[in-house]
Amino acid sequence: MTVAAFTDRDQSDSSPLGALQPFIEDPTIEEIWINSPARIFIARNGKSELTNLILTKEEVANIIERCLMWGGRRLDLSHPFVDARLPDGSRLHVAIPEVTAEHWAVNIRKHIAREKSLLQLCEMQVLTIEMADSLRAALNSGKNILISGSTQAGKTTLLNALANEIPGSERVITIEEVFELKPDRKSTRLNSSHSQQISYAVFCL
Fold first, then answer.
1. Measured between alpha carbons, how far is residue 116 from residues 146, 165, 181 in Å?
2. Taking the CB of residue 179, how many other CB atoms lie within 10 A of it?
3. Could you tell me if 179 and 163 are in contact, meaning their C-beta atoms sit under 8 angstroms apart?
4. Confidence (pLDDT) at 179
5. Residue 60 neighbours by CB distance under 10 Å
6. Which residues of 23-52 are buried (b: 16+ CB within 10 A; e: fewer)?
7. What pTM does this model have?
8. Per residue, what are the HEC states of 3-40?
9. Residue 176: beta bridge partners?
C-alpha cells in the first residue's frame, strides 16, 4: 500500500522533524523508516506502508542533525550508528555508510501509550485467564520474569500490566532506555541511555 504525504516544504523546514513532522503528529502511525531518500515507509497496526514522500540526501541529513542536537549524540565515520530519544519519547535509530551499503538508514519508533491491565489483555484474548493467573503467582512469589519478543509484539504493554500487578507493599525500581513504563506504585525510575545493553528492567525491593 502507498500512502500520500502532503507537506508544505516551507512549513516543514521550520518543524522539528521537517517533512516527517506530519507522520510524527499522526496518532495512527507507529513507526517510520527511511531506507533511502526516495523509499520512506510508515507502519500502522504493525503493517508497513510505502509513502509518496521523497526527500533529498541533504534533507535527510538535516532532519537527523536536528534530532541529534536535542539528544547530544554524535553521528560520523567514527560513530556510524546511533540510538537516541526524541523529545516526545520516540526512539531514533540511524546508521550511515559504511555500516549501510549506500544511503542513511533511519528508523523512528514512536512512543504510543497502550496501558492495559492483565484482565484487559485477557478480554482482548492476548492472554488466557490461566496465563494471567500464572503470571500473578510468579509475581507474588518473587520469581524472575523475562519478557522478550519481536518489534511491536507487545512487550512494553505486557510489562506495564505486570508492573501494575506488583503488590503495593513492594518498592519498584525501573531502568529504561526510554521512559515508557508507568508502574502504579511507589517507584524509582532510572534511565539506561548510557548503557546500550538494557532496554527495560523492573526490580522489586
1. 19, 11, 12
2. 13
3. no
4. 67
5. 21
6. bbeeeebbbbbbebbeebbbbeeeeeeebe
7. 0.64
8. ECCCCCHHHHHCCCCHHHHHHHHCCCCCEEEEEECCEE
9. 191, 200
Which among 11-15, 34-38, 190-194 has the top mean pLDDT? 34-38
131-151 average pLDDT score: 89
Q: Residue with C-alpha cell 533511502? A: 36
Tell me: cis bond preceding 58? Omega within 30 of 0 counts. Answer: no
pLDDT at 96 over 60: yes
Residue 95: count of CB within 10 angstroms of its CB: 16
Number of separate helices (H) and strands (E) present in the chain: 6, 10
* pLDDT tier, 63 (very low <50, low <70, confident <90, very high otherwise): very high
Which phi and psi angles does 13 have, rounded to 5°? Answer: -65, -30
Residue 104 CB-density burial (10 A; 0-12 exposed, 13-18 middle, 19+ buried): buried
